[in-house]
């Protein structure tokens, strides 16, 4: 997969791109991430990327020309007339695991990071094919949002994670939160790890994990549990868990 990111601050991405899973995925050629400084697509002496908002008001607005030109040049380089192009904005559709899976299915993606008071609306209307928000809060720019999206998408690409099993058990994969994890020591400061996990009883462990996952989701995210189709066994596990708790 290739991802082209248009930003005023390419240097912000250095950490994400070089470390951990992302660093290894890039080294192994599983993803090709290209950063484009929007300023490089201006033609004036001072490389101006923003201007005052028409109609007045506070702050500056990113001009459409360098963004249109950058997207068009990427398309030309790829030999494609249309590349899925996402504008990161608090006004976009709310990002989630399902959208991450959808984006991971593309060969190419272009991400546009807005900044300042916003981006000229013609970019959203006539250039971007999608607008994505990572949550109902306002960041100072789209870079952190783009990093969240890229990170989520890249770990879903084939071969990026060591074991495919760890993907299936992630939080949100099935619409549920993940069960709690423990590691050694079995007792720490008087706090014991659940004995079932040390029992070697694989069926018992799977049952406990499913129950914890259901309980956690019901308590912390009632909005999620309402959307999940629960089996008879799930319902049993859940009511049993609530009985134990109360
Ligand atoms: N830019 C500023 N805030 C944002 C958000 N919440 N999501 C995506 N892009 C943004």
Structure write-up:
The protein is of the alpha/beta class. It has two domains: 2-154, Alpha/beta knot; 171-245, Trp Operon Repressor, Chain A (Orthogonal Bundle), CATH 1.10.1270. Helix content is 39%, strand content 17%. The chain is built from ten helices and ten strands. It has a five-stranded parallel β-sheet with strand order 2-1-6-5-8. Strand 9 (187-188) and strand 10 (191-192) form a beta hairpin. Helix 4 crosses helix 6 and helix 8 (202-220) packs across helix 10 (232-245). The model has no long low-confidence stretch (mean pLDDT 95). The protein binds adenine. Residues 88-90, 114, 133-135, 137-139, 142, 145 line the site of adenine.
Number of strands: 10
**Helix/strand order:** EHHEEEHEHEEHEHHEEHHH
- Number of helical stretches of at least 4 residues: 10
The name CATH uses for the topology of the largest domain is Alpha/beta knot
Approximately how much beta-strand content do the residues carry? Answer: 15-25%
User: What is the average of the pLDDT values?
Assistant: 95
Bound ligands, named by name, code or SMILES: adenine
Q: Indicate the multimeric state.
A: single chain
Sequence stretches where pLDDT stays below 50 over 5 or more residues: none
Major sheet: size, sense and barrel closure? 5 strands, parallel
Structural class per helix/strand content?
Answer: alpha/beta
Gyration radius, in Å:
23 Å
**CATH secondary-structure class of the largest domain:** Alpha Beta
CATH architecture of the largest domain: 3-Layer(aba) Sandwich
Q: For the record, give the distance between the C-alpha atoms at the N and C termini, rounded to a whole number.
A: 49 Å
**Fourth-level CATH superfamily of the largest domain:** SPOUT methyltransferase, trefoil knot domain
Q: Please tell me the total number of domains.
A: 2
Strand order of the largest sheet: 2-1-6-5-8
Which descriptor suits the 3D outline? elongated
């Amino acid at each position: 997969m290739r991802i082209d990111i248009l930003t005023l601050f390419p240097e912000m991405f250095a950490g994400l791109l070089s470390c951990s899973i992302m660093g290894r995925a890039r080294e192994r050629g599983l993803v090709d991430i290209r950063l484009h400084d929007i300023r490089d697509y201006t033609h004036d002496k001072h490389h101006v990327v923003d201007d005052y908002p028409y109609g007045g008001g506070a702050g500056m607005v990113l001009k459409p020309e360098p963004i249109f030109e950058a997207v068009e040049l990427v398309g030309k380089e790829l030999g494609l007339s249309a590349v899925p192009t996402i504008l990161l904005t608090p006004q976009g559709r709310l990002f989630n695991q399902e959208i991450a899976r959808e984006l991971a299915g593309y060969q190419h993606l272009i991400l546009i990071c807005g900044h300042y008071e916003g981006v000229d609306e013609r970019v959203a209307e006539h250039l971007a094919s999608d607008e994505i928000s990572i949550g109902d809060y306002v960041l100072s720019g789209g870079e952190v949002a783009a990093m969240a999206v890229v990170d989520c998408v890249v770990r879903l690409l084939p071969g990026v994670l060591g074991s495919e099993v760890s993907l299936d058990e992630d939080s949100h994969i099935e619409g549920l939160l993940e069960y709690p994890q423990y590691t050694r020591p079995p007792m720490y400061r008087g706090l014991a790890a659940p004995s079932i996990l040390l029992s070697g009883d694989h069926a018992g462990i799977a049952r406990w994990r499913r129950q914890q996952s259901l309980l956690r989701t019901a308590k912390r995210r009632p909005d999620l549990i309402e959307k999940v189709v629960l089996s008879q066994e799930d319902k049993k596990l859940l009511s049993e868990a609530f009985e134990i708790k109360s």
